[in-house]
Amino acid sequence: MANKPNQVSDQLVTWSELEGKVVLITGASSGFGWDFSINLAKAGCKIIAAARRLDRLETLCNLINKSSSFNTPLAMPLELDISADSSVIEAAVQKAWTAFGHIDVLINNAGIRGSTSTTLQLSNEEWNNVFKINLDGTWLCSKYVASRMRDAGIGGSIINISSIYGVNRVVGVGSLAYSSSKAAMHTLTTVMALEFGIHNIRVNAIAPALFRSEITKELYQKKWLRRVMDKTIPQPFFYDATVDPSLTELIRYLILDSTKYVTGNVFIVDGGHTLAGVPIWSSL
User: Fold this and answer.
1) I need a labelling partner for 222 at 20 to 30 A (CA). Which of 1, 44, 168, 214 fits?
2) At what angle do helices 176-196 and 124-131 cross, to 10 degrees?
3) Residue 1 pLDDT more than 50?
4) What sections of the sequence does the record tag as coiled-coil (predicted)?
5) Catalytic residue list contains 178
């Protein structure tokens, strides 16, 4: 029995397993993508920060590399518009692959909310644009990264950043295109997990609730927001938080090799917002 604590400690997972993992993050120029990049770099991951705004990416990568204790750069910027043609996206993925010799993890974080137009007001152009970015971009990035993981025989992890608006029975007026694209992302996640499993590639999605970001800037300006969220979320609403450890720690968990049996899931991070019976509207 004296050796039991040591035997247990040998089984415990530490974040040191993340060191050296190569992570491609789309939409890294702000919001979740920015925070994910910094958080994973602190764990020793090598970051390929991708987005349209190259100047912002260069600022992010300089911040990471200057604060790193490693002798070689941990982060590099990659200009990528995921609404571009498939050939452009494939070329960007190839550039990302050669940056550090391979890719272990893809985080499909880039996305847009679109306007709050109702179904009858929504234009064909906006519908197509939301799906082009939120769904087509996620599919194409996953396709080109996964094909290289397969050919290299290394396996990997794909993490799709979705939304609680893609969860069954969570609805919002004026969110038709956004909600539909995120619901489709959940199906995309499960089907890819089913197909990629044979190549040792796991695919999961994370559906967060509301956090501060560029995509929610206008909503956070509404005076009623805090009062409503405090009344409708069982856990305290993190009004000033841009990202929550519940998200960053979950990201780390899904990267670990020890989670190779975790695939095809949608992890909801919402403080209980989507629980049945909540909110109690009479309390508003």
Assistant:
1) 168
2) 30
3) no
4) none
5) yes
192-210 average pLDDT score: 95
Looking up tokens 């069954």 gives 168
Residue with tokens 């990629």: 196
DSSP 189-234: HHHHHHHHGGGTEEEEEEEE----SGGGHHHHT-TTHHHHHHHH-S
The rounded percent of the chain whose pLDDT value lies above 70 is: 86
Q: Report the alpha-carbon distance of residue 102 to residue 117 in Å, rounded.
A: 42
DSSP string, 127-190: HHHHHIIIIIHHHHHHHHHHHHHHHHT--EEEEEE--GGGSTT---TT-HHHHHHHHHHHHHHH
Q: Per-residue b/e over 106-130, b at no fewer than 16 CB within 10 Å? A: bbbbbbbbbbebeeeebeeebbeeb
Does residue 203 register a pLDDT over 80?
yes
Catalytic position from the list 144, 178, 253, 261: 178
Degrees, nearest 5: CA angle 19-140-191: 85
